[in-house]
Each structure stands twice: as structure tokens, then as C-alpha cells.
Amino acid sequence: MTDKIPKPFDAAPGSDRAEAEAWHLFRIMSEFVEATEKLGEIRPAISVFGSARIPAGHPYYALAEKISRLLSDAGFAVISGGGPGIMEAANRGAHSGCSPSVGLNIELAHEQFGNKYQDIVLTFRHFFARKAMFVKFAGAFVFLPGGFGTLDELGEVLTLIQTGKSARVPVILVHGPFWRGLLDWFRERLTGERLIAPEDMDLIQVIDEPQKVVDAIFKHYEHRSFHPLAAERETLLNL
């Protein structure tokens, strides 16, 4: 009976469907290859996340720009999603500093357009390839207020670190009042119902002041290199 159940992605060799699937796989591979070649020399780098909908002049925008400028002047490349809002603020701050401003752009039907403050520009069709690059080259993660996309990245980063698929590096949430309700829910529901371990909450830091964000990252690397250790490089190969 099970032999009669159609497999949704089956295609006969040589068919148009099979050819399309094959070319699709090559396009995915090309995204990973191009990104790895362009980003391989930018370390140390920090990935900064936040809403695309925050306009210039908003306090969150100013906060992201200030943090990114400080990171850039401290020697860190800054990686953002390359679009408007907090992403633009992060690229703008880094672009005005001493280190590269990197944009990992995504092709979307609405909302996303590249900002003009990117020194290194990459454009992805596939979210999963883009997300892998945010993690693969980052020595820390800074999250400013954002929506579903920002929360998705936060969940992804925490899961990878929790499960040992990524190195344990700083995960910093900026602007405590915005994050307080979510963190309370994590403690009450996720920890309280034993869906995560109490120590998993230690993966997260909440910091409001830009200079203290930079200081927290330097503190983490106080007794080790900014570059991944051999075991961490091996882990990242299997991300």
C-alpha cells in the first residue's frame, strides 16, 4: 500500500522538474560558496538584529547606530540584514567606524531593500542560507527590538548554542523594557514547566548602555582569541 503513495518531490531523471530541482540545489550551493568566500576574512564580527520598521530618528535606531559605531571602532565587523530600520542603523554606525559594515540582504516581495551603508553586500534568496551566515561568522549576537524576524533569529541562535551546534558566545538583548515580558514568560513557562533548564537563561544578557555591550563582548574574550578555536571551527562546519 505504501508504494502507491506519491512522493511529492519525485521527478523522473531528465524531466523538466528534475532539472529545475537540480538547478535549485546549485543556486543554494552558490549562495553558501559566495558568502563563505566574502565573509571568511572579516572576523572578528558581530551580528546585529532588529526591526526593519524602525525609522531614522527613533531612539531604537539611534541606539543601534551607536552600538555599531562603537563595535566598529573597537575592531569588529558588524553584520546586519542589510535592509532598512535597525539593519540600516547597524550598517550606518559600522560604516562610519573603522571596520567593515556587512549586509546579508534577502529577496522579499515587500519591505526589504538594501541600505546604502554596506561595505560588503550579499543577497540571498533563501532564509536558511542567510541565517547560517549570521551564525557562522559571528563572535557575538546583539538583538535590538524587533518583530517576528528578530524573534526567529533569537530562537535560532539560542537553540544552536543550547544544543551545542554553535559555540557559546554572548547573546545580548538591548533595551530591557522591551524584552522584559518575553524573559518573564521564559522563566515562568519554559523554565517553570521544565521545557528548558534553569541554566539556559544564563545564555542571555540584557544590557541597555552601548559601551557596556562592547565591554561585555570583550569580557567574554578576555582569556581567549576572537577567532574560533579548533573545536569550534569543527562545530561550525556541521552547522
Walk me through the structure:
This protein has eight helices and seven strands; from the N terminus they run αβαβαββαβαβαβαα. It has 239 residues and is α/β, with parallel strands linked by helices. The protein has a single domain (16-218), classed as Rossmann fold (3-Layer(aba) Sandwich), CATH 3.40.50.450. Residues 4-11 have low confidence and may be disordered.
How is this structure best summarized?
The protein has helices at residues 16-39, 59-73, 86-95, 127-136, 148-162, 176-191, 210-220, 230-237, and strands spanning 45-49, 77-80, 101-106, 120-124, 141-143, 171-174, 204-207. By secondary structure, it is an alpha/beta fold.
Helix content: 40-55%
Intertermini distance:
37 Å
Enumerate the spans where pLDDT stays under 50 for 5 or more consecutive residues: 4-11
pLDDT averaged over residues: 90
Give the overall form: globular
Q: What's the number of extended β-strand segments?
A: 7
* CATH fold topology: Rossmann fold
Rg calc: 19 Å
What is the number of independent domains? 1
Count the DSSP helices. Answer: 8
The secondary structure category is alpha/beta
CATH architecture: 3-Layer(aba) Sandwich
Strand arrangement across the biggest beta sheet: 4-3-2-1-5-6-7
Name of the top-level CATH class: Alpha Beta
Query: How can the largest sheet be summarized?
Result: 7 strands, parallel
